[in-house]
Specification:
The chain folds into six domains: 136 residues, Immunoglobulins (Immunoglobulin-like, Sandwich), CATH 2.60.40; 97 residues, Immunoglobulins (Immunoglobulin-like), CATH 2.60.40; 98 residues, Immunoglobulins (Immunoglobulin-like, Sandwich), CATH 2.60.40; 90 residues, Immunoglobulins (Immunoglobulin-like, Sandwich), CATH 2.60.40.10; 87 residues, Immunoglobulins (Immunoglobulin-like), CATH 2.60.40; 161 residues, Immunoglobulin-like. It has eight helices and 52 strands. The strands form ten sheets. Strands 44, 45, 46, 47, 48, 49, 50, 51 and 52 form a nine-stranded mixed sheet that branches. Strands 30, 32, 33, 35, 36, 37, 38 and 41 form an eight-stranded mixed sheet that branches. The protein has a six-stranded mixed sheet with strand order 1-9-8-3-4-5, covered by helices on one side. It is elongated, with a radius of gyration of 66 Å. The protein starts with a helix and ends with a strand.
């Protein structure tokens, strides 16, 4: 910024020195172009500052007015300057970025007319000078008029009559260069002679014009002194009364030649030429004044009054007369009126309408009733052909329509649902053919099966076709093994929740619908299988031995409302599993809660006692039946845990009776022996001991050898043998295993391969 401020004063000083030392000589120092501009407008001066080679560059550009600098641009510091003494501040605007560069001078004044030139200095190339000789054009003032007696005339002169001579002067003040004055009648030049005026700085042109219909258009005086601006124009209206010389009627649209069609709009135009002031146009139809027509217009260029009439003729308008009357409002009707009259030639194609005959509701027919359609026609000339259409397709004889399909009536003896749809007819004559608006015919029919009965989830759907839609459904439901149930609903959907009782196996469903037309001839019937509505087989179950019995525990199954547990035992033939017992399973909520919040919700059921080879089953059930049982076989560990102690064997009914009988017999024998022995002792004293040698067999000898051991076993109770501690020290003694032990160990074989229920697995417990 400091550098630019240092360069600018130096540049101005350099320009002043160059200005004193050198002046621009046209054609010698550089070319000169002539340029015109209008006072008060803008002008743009052009200067070629383009470099001749890529190595060169612009250094300085200066504009001069009459060799006095008015603007400069220093490319080295990108600084601009304009002369304040030239008083151009705000009126100069340069554009250095484009080629050629421009200098725009705005709000031009007369003293801006001078010789301008630009000087361009380059780094390598020599200085370039280009001159512009600017001429400032001053437009003349608007023309004004004086009549033949010296009165000033504005806007209008007259009135005159055809044949009168108009004397008029046009004066123009100022203008540089002096303007030329021309007279025009409309767009026609009538006088272009120049005239002198006694007033300095004023140009005048006097006109002598015989008035006719042709030159009675608007008169204008035009003054022009440059091609940069249009002429300065002043107009004067010549008021010349003229009647219309031509009135004509012609059809614009809606006709074929000069023929009209009844019911079809037509546009007619009336034109009145040559009337001044513009004629008033009026329409008459058979001496009836028509007031509803388009607004009247006037074309100044042709002196034509125009009026349009929108006419929709009817049958009664055939042969009527249509007249257009043009009247000059400034003249008497006897002198200023003229008319044109035509006769209407009206023909029309048929007017067609379709109707349904009969006493039924409009456009409605019951199936198997007759369908009778009529094509009502009004036409001139008469109709000579008919056509019938169904759903926009032409009806041909035969099939379901019969053979009379080309007359004014269409009759179907017995309508079916295939006759429902849209009907229309077409009638034609020599003028044309007309198609009526269609009517829709509805054919009502009773319900009938459509895709029968379907079961979606737990809802039965009765699918029927009917028109109108059925409003009553009669259901007959018979579950397998149960009585028939009868239901009446207003919907085609029947939830199975409305059927009472269990629904195992299959369900026989019959439905018939009613819609007020007729009852359903053949009810819809179907046997539905409900197998898929049963719950799925439990998949996550195990066996446990708790609370002195076997327990089945399972995670609940979706869609199950209750559960069953069963025990299966091997048959005596060892060929199949036989159902031993069945019981219900309950929700073990307390057990699940005791296991903590993360434990699954369980269902559980007691199985009682299980033996080796037994299998336990779990089934999920709802009102539609139970799933297949998931069979589990207890493991050896579970069987050992559930085995009773050996002494429980003695408590069994059969064993206890046998043992009791043996004890009683032994007691009787011992007591008898003792009584006999005592009796013998009382009789005599015993003699010397007698030793008797018995012959013993091997079995008796073995028994006697081990008699001491047998006595010990026989005299050992459960308490005395299992506890080596006294009763007082029982709390400190070792714990006694009081679990029931099996009296003997028996190894069970796996079920044979021909077991009837084969789905099983061993418990994970």
């Amino acid at each position: 910024m400091d550098h630019r401020m240092r360069v600018t004063p130096a540049l101005i000083l350099l320009l002043l020195i160059c200005t004193d030392a050198h002046t621009f000589s046209p054609e010698t120092d550089g070319p000169v172009v002539n340029q015109e501009a209008i006072e008060g407008h803008n002008t743009t001066l052009h200067c070629d500052s383009a470099v001749e080679s890529a190595a060169d560059e612009l250094m300085l550009l200066v504009w001069y007015k009459n060799d006095a600098p008015i603007y400069s641009y220093d490319a080295r510091s990108r600084s601009e300057w304009s002369s304040e003494s030239f008083n151009t501040t705000g009126r100069l605007k340069a554009n250095i970025s484009q080629q050629p560069t421009t200098l725009t001078v705005s709000a031009l004044r007369e003293d801006d007319q001078e010789l301008y030139h630009c000087r361009v200095d380059f780094l390598l190339s020599p200085t370039r000078n280009i001159g512009v000789n600017l001429t400032i054009v001053v437009l003349p003032s608007p023309p004004f008029f004086f009549d033949e007696v010296g009165n000033k005339v504005e806007e209008k002169i007259g009135p005159y009559h055809e044949g009168d001579t108009l004397v008029l002067s046009c004066l123009v003040i100022g203008g540089r260069p002096p303007p030329r004055i021309s007279w025009y009648s409309g767009e026609t030049l009538v006088d272009a002679s120049d005239g002198a005026s006694d007033i300095p700085g004023v140009k005048e042109n006097e006109l002598y014009l015989p008035l006719t219909r042709d030159n009675a258009a608007a008169l204008s005086c035009r003054a022009s002194n440059t091609r940069l601006a249009p002429p300065v124009v002043a107009s004067l209206q010549i008021e010349l009364y003229l009647p219309a010389y031509n009135v004509s009627i012609h059809w614009v649209e809606g006709t074929l030649g000069d023929t009209l069609q009844a019911g079809k709009p037509a546009l007619v135009q009336c034109s009145a030429h040559g009337s001044y002031p513009p004629a008033d146009l009026a329409w008459w139809l058979d001496h009836k004044h028509l007031t509803q027509h388009s607004n009247q217009s006037f074309v100044n260029a042709t002196g034509t009054a125009i009026s349009f009439l929108q006419l929709t003729p009817g049958v009664a308008d055939a042969g009527a007369t249509l007249a257009c009357v043009a009247t000059n409002p400034a003249m008497a009707p006897s002198r200023g009126s003229k008319a044109d009259i035509i006769t209407l030639n009206v023909t029309y194609s048929p007017i067609v309408e379709v109707s349904l005959l009969g006493d039924e509701s409009p456009n409605e027919v019951v199936e198997l009733d007759p369908l009778h359609l009529k094509c009502d026609v009004k036409a001139n000339p008469p109709v000579d052909r008919f056509k019938w259409y169904f759903n926009d397709n032409e009806i041909h004889a035969g099939d379901i329509w019969g053979f009379n399909t080309t007359s004014g009536e269409l009759v179907v003896e017995e309508a079916t649902r295939h006759h429902a749809g849209r009907y229309n007819c077409a009638a034609g004559n020599s003028v044309g053919q007309t198609t009526a608006e269609h009517i829709s015919v509805t054919v009502f029919y009773p319900p009938e099966c459509d895709n029968g009965i379907t079961l979606i989830k737990e809802t039965v759907n009765c699918n029927v076709r009917a028109l109108p839609t059925p409003d009553t459904y009669f259901w007959h439901i018979q579950p397998s093994g149960s009585d028939m149930q009868h239901l009446t609903t207003g919907s085609a959907l029947l939830p199975l929740s409305q059927v009472t009782g269990p629904l195992p196996g299959t369900l026989k469903v019959t439905c018939d619908a009613g819609n007020g037309i007729a009852s359903q001839e053949t009810p819809c019937e179907r046997i539905l299988s409900l197998e898929h509505l049963r719950p799925q087989q439990p998949q996550q179950c195990d066996l446990a031995y708790e609370y002195e019995e076997f327990q089945m525990r399972c995670i609940p199954v979706e869609n199950a409302t209750y559960y069953e547990v069963s025990v299966w035992r091997m048959s005596t033939s060892n060929t199949s599993l036989i159902l031993e017992r069945r019981a219900s399973m309950g929700f073990g909520s307390g057990q699940a809660m005791a296991q903590g919040g993360g434990a699954p919700w369980l269902v559980r059921g007691g199985l009682g006692k299980l033996k080796a080879g037994d299998e336990a089953g779990a089934s999920a059930c709802n009102r539609y039946g139970c799933s297949r049982a998931l069979l589990l076989r207890p493991t050896e560990n579970l069987l050992q845990d559930s085995a009773p102690p050996w002494w429980e064997f003695l408590l069994e009914k059969d064993v206890a009776i046998s043992v009791g009988a043996v004890v009683l017999v032994a007691a009787f024998l011992i007591s008898t022996f003792l009584v006999v022995r005592l009796a013998r002792r009382s009789r005599a004293k015993p003699s010397a001991p007698v030793i008797q040698v018995l012959q013993l067999d091997d079995i008796a000898r073995d028994y006697l050898d081990t008699i001491g051991e047998h006595k010990v076993r026989a005299s050992c109770s459960l308490r005395s043998c299992s506890s080596v501690y006294s009763e007082g020290s029982a709390e400190s003694g070792p714990a006694v295993d009081r679990r029931r032990k099996p009296m003997w160990t028996h190894q069970w074989d796996a079920p044979p391969p021909d077991v009837t229920l084969t789905l099983h697995r061993e418990s994970a417990v």
